[in-house]
Amino acid sequence: MPITIIDETTTARTDGRAPGDLRDVKITRNWLDHAEGSVLVEFGRTRVLCAASLTEGVPRWRRGSGEGWVTAEYAMLPRSTNTRSDRESVKGKIGGRTHEISRLIGRSLRAVVDTKQLGENTIVLDCDVLQADGGTRTAAITGAYVALADAVAFATRKGWVKASAQPLIQSVSAVSVGVVGGRPVLDLCYDEDVTADTDMNVVCTADGRFVEVQGTAEGVPFDRSELDALLDLAVAGCGRLAQLQAEALAR
Amino acid sequence: MPITIIDETTTARTDGRAPGDLRDVKITRNWLDHAEGSVLVEFGRTRVLCAASLTEGVPRWRRGSGEGWVTAEYAMLPRSTNTRSDRESVKGKIGGRTHEISRLIGRSLRAVVDTKQLGENTIVLDCDVLQADGGTRTAAITGAYVALADAVAFATRKGWVKASAQPLIQSVSAVSVGVVGGRPVLDLCYDEDVTADTDMNVVCTADGRFVEVQGTAEGVPFDRSELDALLDLAVAGCGRLAQLQAEALAR
Amino acid sequence: MPITIIDETTTARTDGRAPGDLRDVKITRNWLDHAEGSVLVEFGRTRVLCAASLTEGVPRWRRGSGEGWVTAEYAMLPRSTNTRSDRESVKGKIGGRTHEISRLIGRSLRAVVDTKQLGENTIVLDCDVLQADGGTRTAAITGAYVALADAVAFATRKGWVKASAQPLIQSVSAVSVGVVGGRPVLDLCYDEDVTADTDMNVVCTADGRFVEVQGTAEGVPFDRSELDALLDLAVAGCGRLAQLQAEALAR
Amino acid sequence: MPITIIDETTTARTDGRAPGDLRDVKITRNWLDHAEGSVLVEFGRTRVLCAASLTEGVPRWRRGSGEGWVTAEYAMLPRSTNTRSDRESVKGKIGGRTHEISRLIGRSLRAVVDTKQLGENTIVLDCDVLQADGGTRTAAITGAYVALADAVAFATRKGWVKASAQPLIQSVSAVSVGVVGGRPVLDLCYDEDVTADTDMNVVCTADGRFVEVQGTAEGVPFDRSELDALLDLAVAGCGRLAQLQAEALAR
Amino acid sequence: MPITIIDETTTARTDGRAPGDLRDVKITRNWLDHAEGSVLVEFGRTRVLCAASLTEGVPRWRRGSGEGWVTAEYAMLPRSTNTRSDRESVKGKIGGRTHEISRLIGRSLRAVVDTKQLGENTIVLDCDVLQADGGTRTAAITGAYVALADAVAFATRKGWVKASAQPLIQSVSAVSVGVVGGRPVLDLCYDEDVTADTDMNVVCTADGRFVEVQGTAEGVPFDRSELDALLDLAVAGCGRLAQLQAEALAR
Amino acid sequence: MPITIIDETTTARTDGRAPGDLRDVKITRNWLDHAEGSVLVEFGRTRVLCAASLTEGVPRWRRGSGEGWVTAEYAMLPRSTNTRSDRESVKGKIGGRTHEISRLIGRSLRAVVDTKQLGENTIVLDCDVLQADGGTRTAAITGAYVALADAVAFATRKGWVKASAQPLIQSVSAVSVGVVGGRPVLDLCYDEDVTADTDMNVVCTADGRFVEVQGTAEGVPFDRSELDALLDLAVAGCGRLAQLQAEALAR
């Protein structure tokens, strides 16, 4: 699924992609039998299992508001990575990175949810990385949206959400961009990620607006023109992901 | 893969199996790209991802012994079950059941490992339940053995283990048995498990000897004849699993 | 209190016992002033303090059921063992073995409790190992039953449990068996335990039925005939323990 | 210290500032006697104590590299906020927000440190919020840089860092921007922050390049033109902060 | 503010004080904008920020009693000390010393509070050590009383406490005394504290009675005459502190 | 073992003792088989098991000093008290009171140990309260000293401590005193403790000097004359305890 944005470069990326190419993206719905929505999302070798759990009621601080709640938890299996990491359950605490990404996924999804339309129901999105090869948080957001859509549809079928309600305003997806070898590229795999000078994760709605922009200078600080090029790539990439989400949901 | 032991019963089990039938068992090797051995094992709808991680060296208390170490960690994804469970990493501690099963898997595998032949290498087996429908610990042991065998083969290819060494003495597998509706049955699914009077997990070597026998009276205590019938079923079931492991490793 | 089962062996055990001999077992009731039931139970040098605490009400998940609850917590004092162990309270978490044994004791006691007859009352059994010389979990179960019986009697005297109710169905006791030096023996002390090939804990009711059977191959896997011999020893040992419990309760 | 960027608006902000105005910024060096560098930084009523602690040596994973290490920890006093929050030490774990901000401050400072020039020394920046009124993380970065500069100077005076070395490449500062009432504004106080549609934290070097850009749509997603306006405001604000840092260090 | 008690000594203390001299004591009220009472208290270079947080309601175990509750939490910033200490929040647990001092402060304040007069309101005193140079717990108690008085006045103004009520019986303050170089001295700074043979913290009410007396032999045990001399010094020192508290509250 | 100090009172205490009477004190040595020193100490119904564990080597921060280390850990069994308390191991953290008492016991013992004479050996005193009826910390100190003496004697016999060394300077014991019903009394049982106006724990050496004096006003603050009366009682009580310790060690 190549979307060529910058093709002035002749040297291919490590995996042969052009700078504006996504990796192969697969979205498999209903991967689990129990969850109200579930998706195995793959961005190349990155593989994230997204499960949406719907429950009646909301956290205490939201009770009586008439509004629902959507939240997310992200985690990596110990051997999703190249070398094994210790389990956070065994260490007895969640690391900073895990916390940060869980919060990012939750915020990103809530940006497209009209919690009033959801009623006092809660949907938790569990995003567990089965295999990591860069872009796990962006794959998680992209897959979690589809699982969320399935859980909302389930809630509507069950009558928990009114038939007339539209809890989802539009779709949301995410992609990473970065400057690798001096060149802005889309959807970095792990090998690219570790050598990137700038690393940015961008979360966009289907209409091309921004939900989150998180850019970090890994090596030297970046300037406005680099930032602009990265944003262009990201917006285009999210546009393609929004199509893939729509196709998956139409199946 | 039916193995009929007791067929005097005419009423089928909830899923149509005879008392001595295993569920459909699938063993998919190399499900992950990074791990030295990895298996997705399925006992019906129960699905466990077993990843073997090989590292040079052993825990401090074993250094200088010339012997290797094999250990295991078991965990369930929050939505592997019918209703979502809280993450143990978020709760900040491992529950008793998790501890117990992790220890059982580790002991079961070590029973067939000659740690002297392994040299000072460590293999950690991560058994993560992606979907639970009864028998997750027995599926985990059965799958983990195959992942372990692949990791040992990897270590041998890399020269970490001597070509002449035989770290694996024989294979090991496990199955649950129980008394359901007054009748001993093999390989209980969740619906059977919750109604069982007696619940037993049996771990056997390929030559039909016992590594672990763990029987618990859930309702009324059981007598020797029930125990004997359950052990018969379990030994036959493990025999069939040993064949399936061998077939998977031969592919 | 020797109960000879196998006497073809002429070589005595390290402490002079025949294979089917229990160690000296002492059951001292009312060792504490505050607890509703309390027992200092001794299996040779193993010494466990079992305290039964009775409270009105049940855990939240059981409220309104009309049924009671019985649970247990096991722990070892830091210097109950040969070399000092760190406190689990200082480490900030319960180890796997502690979890496992606490759960075993709780299940074993509940197997002989008719929770409906108990009414909505809770009894917690605290089993604290003051000195460990093998068989701490089996001594704990054996002593805890007596403390439980005293707490139930207390509850009946106080009218918390109806005079006509029979919350205890029968007694329960436990003993370890194992294969030491190729020979099945009963009630292993620590020195025997560390050299045992097979180690089994068996929990029986007074009528000789099984509540728990937990056998583990420490060295080589064991076969059915060894398992049978161990079960025979254990059933006989539990029978003797049931007598001792009855005698203690009759005093 | 007003820096007017957008002055087409006639309605003042809640505290009377123009959209491009910073709050009163005060940087007080040497607020502590023990620390190698310390700054009390104030952005209006937001007050953060930044202490730089210099120690010889680096974390284990960096030993022998010849390179130094700079890291940061952020925390809020329980009553820095409008209503008291529980202490994270009492809760026994660090929250996600604390983790996230600590990591942000550390990355931001490392972006302007040449760790090779620092030699194998570690500098920890503790940023404790004494009073919070919005923008605590940006104040922390801005103040921490000055404390870091003082600690580097201390290290140089002591000879821990060579006289010829230049561990600091340039200065770094940070500011928040957001869309409040439909209008992009600089350096939000708490009242503005809670009503902002978009909230962005920008970290810039003295030469106006980006170290971090973190924008979040709190309400509706934002478009490219809003993003551009916010970036313009932020770059100008960081420029002013860089001057104030330089003035403080010149005193 | 010298109060000379023992002046037979001619050699001055390390900072020039006479044995019965307090360090310079400063009590700055309203150091924070949000808290209902707040004090920056300084005993020489020791600097503690005391914030009083008033909330309606009391802990569960006190509900319906009609009585209020006063408690305290003490903590040190990581770089309040000469060398940096790890954060207790990062370590995931509170140390023994922190626990001990928090409890001491709470008890000391409750000794002068008539909780019935307070009504069902809670006041939490957070005492955070910004800089430590000996005597942090005594400075904390002395400052916390003033913050408490301001919070009570606030509660009275708001009508949470009846205008006629007198929740504060009298003032309370604390000071350290010790035997340094064979000589009893008042209000030890850190350098004196580490070399003291006996270290005592004394908490007194304004009328010169004792709330807490905590004496510890650091080196050799102390005798009754030393104890008496230390108590004399402490009572005089607390008397002076009570005046300073009264002056601060009168401003 | 009555030691009458104040006999102007005619009304007896709840248990019939005169104000200056200790409860029955029993010191049973070698209560455990494994520990290098062990004592079951009883102050009336208060029963504390003190185990001394000797190990070669010292904590890291003391290595190479040539000096030994003595420390203590105090804990209560869940049902040592009138109503059951939750286990600190299950709660995952040590409470403030436990911390405080552990530290007190450790300091008290170190006050009579010449760590240079001990050589680089560590002795840990575990003081576990089996039954609590007031005065657990003072019983713990009193019993722990005897266990310590036995462990030192063991170390000397084994040659870990030189035959000529005298690691113990003198004995140490502790007792509680308090003002109950307006009258100073010695060695309070629980019923007295809860009604006491002033509560003081005093740790004395055999020669009648003070190691610790910890007095707390529970109700109204106390004055100097009350303090003096309490100290008199405590010194006499510790004197009697020192005799009992000596007698126990002489047996």
TrEMBL record, chains A, B, C, D, E, F:
It comes from the Bacteria. PROSITE patterns: RIBONUCLEASE_PH (PS01277). Its EC number is 2.7.7.56. It holds the Pfam family RNase_PH. CDD domains: RNase_PH_bact. GO terms for molecular function: tRNA nucleotidyltransferase activity. It catalyses: tRNA(n+1) + phosphate = tRNA(n) + a ribonucleoside 5'-diphosphate. Phosphate binds at R97, G135, T136, R137. InterPro entries: ExoRNase_PH_dom1, ExoRNase_PH_dom2, ExoRNase_PH_dom2_sf, PNPase/RNase_PH_dom_sf, Ribosomal_Su5_D2-typ_SF, RNase_PH, RNase_PH_bac-type, RNase_PH_CS. Keywords: Nucleotidyltransferase, RNA-binding, rRNA processing, Transferase, tRNA processing, tRNA-binding. Residues 22-151, 172-236 form the Exoribonuclease phosphorolytic domain. Phosphorolytic 3'-5' exoribonuclease that plays an important role in tRNA 3'-end maturation. Removes nucleotide residues following the 3'-CCA terminus of tRNAs; can also add nucleotides to the ends of RNA molecules by using nucleoside diphosphates as substrates, but this may not be physiologically important. Probably plays a role in initiation of 16S rRNA degradation (leading to ribosome degradation) during starvation. Homohexameric ring arranged as a trimer of dimers. Belongs to the RNase PH family. This is Ribonuclease PH.
